[in-house]
Write a structure and sequence with these properties.
Layout: E1 3-7, H1 15-27, E2 30-33, H2 53-60, E3 65-71, H3 79-87, H4 89-93, H5 98-101, E4 108-115, H6 122-134, E5 138-146
Parallel strand pairs: 1-2, 1-3, 3-4, 4-5
């Protein structure tokens, strides 16, 4: 099974990156730092279709297992991760892109999170889980790493 870890964090080398590196070794997975890409917010008129999202999403479709990794920021995923999920709507809105979107039905997903708490809040995991399940994906696992508070994380 070919896996990729999509991750986002305000600190490229922080706790999330450490968790991603550990899991990537375990799964022999590729990893991709979303914050390196220009992913604009969803727009009803699709005026942002020239950013990096569509090419990035198409590349992700080549994997069987997608891990979404984010620190817990105020009970939520990072803004870049949220933009990534919102932009999937581009493929729903355009009938010519819908066949590509349907490829997600054969995919598995996992959630990798970290915070100072023992577990990720349900509102955090539900955003990813409910979106992926709506798209027909199967949940493989949820992993949460607890890290002590650090001033610059």
């Amino acid at each position: 099974m070919k896996s990729i870890i999509l991750y986002s964090s305000s600190n490229r080398q922080g706790n999330t990156a450490q968790s991603v590196q550990q899991l990537a070794q375990q799964l022999q997975a590729d990893s991709l730092y979303l914050d390196d890409y220009d992913i604009k917010d969803y727009c009803y008129n699709h005026s942002n279709s020239e950013d990096d999202f569509r090419a990035l999403f198409r590349a992700v479709l080549n994997y069987d297992h997608i891990v979404f990794a984010s620190p817990v920021y105020w009970y939520a995923i990072t803004p870049k991760m949220k933009a990534f999920f919102d932009r999937i709507t581009d493929f729903m809105d355009d009938e010519t892109l819908q066949p590509e979107l349907r490829r997600l039905r054969d995919k598995q997903f996992s959630i990798l999170s970290n915070s100072i708490q023992e577990t990720a809040p349900r509102c955090f995991t539900e955003v990813i889980q409910k979106t992926c399940e709506y798209l027909g994906m199967t949940c493989r696992e949820q992993i949460h790493h607890q890290y002590p508070y650090q001033e610059n994380e």
